[in-house]
Specification:
The complex is a heterodimer of chains A (108) and B (115). With 108 residues, chain A is mostly beta strands. Chain A is built from no helices and 9 strands. In chain A, the strands form 2 sheets. In chain A, strands 1-9-8-3-4 form a 5-stranded mixed beta sheet, with no helix packed on it. Classes of the chains: A mainly beta (108), B mainly beta (115). Chains A and B meet through strand 3 and strand 4 of A and strand 4, strand 5 and strand 10 of B.
Chain lengths: 108, 115
C-alpha cells in the first residue's frame, strides 16, 4: 500500500469548514483513498472514499488532486462532535492499514 | 440494523487464562476483520475473512492467537494463554464488496486487560 502523510494535529473553529490534508505521492493507479475517523473510545467510523473524482456525501467532501498525489477531506461545518482522529488510507486491497492520523480538535 | 456487535465490552483476566472475544457482523457483509489497538502500536490488522474463510492472518502476533468464523453471522478471536502484553482494545469490523471494498463498519470494541 502507498504511504500517506498527515499533519499530527490541527484545530478548527466550530461552524467553520475543516480542511484536512493528506499526501500520498506514491499512490498507484488502482489505489483508492479512504477516510475514517475515530472519536475517543469508539470504533473507527467510515467517512468517504474515492479514486479520481471528487466525492461528497452527507458527512464530508473528498477532493483529490488531478495527479492524485494528495487529497483533502472537507468537513463543511465543523461541530464539537467532529473532534476525533482522522485517518487517510490508500489501498487497492481488501484490508486497511491505519497510520497515526490527524487529531482534529474543534473549539467553540 | 444493529451494526457490528462485539462482546464482551470489557474483559479482565489473569495471565495464563484463555480469553474469547466474539463478533457478530452486519447481515449481508462478506468480509470480516479483527483489529487490535494500543497506544504504542495504534490500529493493527490481525486477520480478515471473506465468506467465512480466513484470507490473511499475517497480522496475528503468535500462535497464542486464533480466530474462527464458523458461519456468516459469528466470529471469535481466542487468546490462549493470555499475557499482560495482550492488553488492548480489540475491534471487529465488517464490510462488503461491489467491485470496490465499501467502507468498514466497526464494532464498539472489547477492552481487554490481562493482569
Amino acid at each position: 500500500d502507498a504511504k500517506t502523510t498527515q499533519p499530527p494535529s490541527m484545530d478548527c473553529a466550530e461552524g467553520r469548514a475543516a480542511n484536512l490534508p493528506c499526501n500520498h505521492s506514491t499512490i498507484s493507479g488502482n489505489e483508492y483513498v479512504y477516510w475514517y475517523r475515530q472519536i475517543h473510545s469508539q470504533g473507527p467510523q467510515y467517512i468517504i472514499h474515492g479514486l479520481k473524482n471528487n466525492e461528497t456525501n452527507e458527512m464530508a467532501s473528498l477532493i483529490i488532486t488531478e495527479d492524485r498525489k494528495s487529497s483533502t477531506l472537507i468537513l463543511p461545518h465543523a461541530t464539537l462532535r467532529d473532534t476525533a482522529v482522522y485517518y487517510c488510507i490508500v489501498t487497492n486491497d481488501y484490508k486497511l492499514s491505519f497510520g497515526a492520523g490527524t487529531t482534529v480538535t474543534v473549539r467553540a | 440494523d444493529a451494526g457490528v456487535i462485539q462482546s464482551p465490552r470489557h474483559e479482565v483476566t489473569e495471565m495464563g487464562q484463555e480469553v474469547t472475544l466474539r463478533c457478530k457482523p452486519i447481515s449481508g457483509h462478506d468480509y470480516l476483520f479483527w483489529y487490535r489497538q494500543t497506544m504504542m502500536r495504534g490500529l493493527e490488522l490481525l486477520i480478515y475473512f471473506n465468506n467465512n474463510v480466513p484470507i490473511d492472518d499475517s497480522g496475528m502476533p503468535e500462535d497464542r492467537f486464533s480466530a474462527k468464523m464458523p458461519n456468516a453471522s459469528f466470529s471469535t478471536l481466542k487468546i490462549q494463554p493470555s499475557e499482560p502484553r495482550d492488553s488492548a482494545v480489540y475491534f471487529c469490523a465488517s464490510s462488503y464488496h461491489t467491485g470496490v471494498l465499501r467502507g468498514y463498519t466497526f464494532g464498539s470494541g472489547t477492552r481487554l486487560t490481562v493482569v
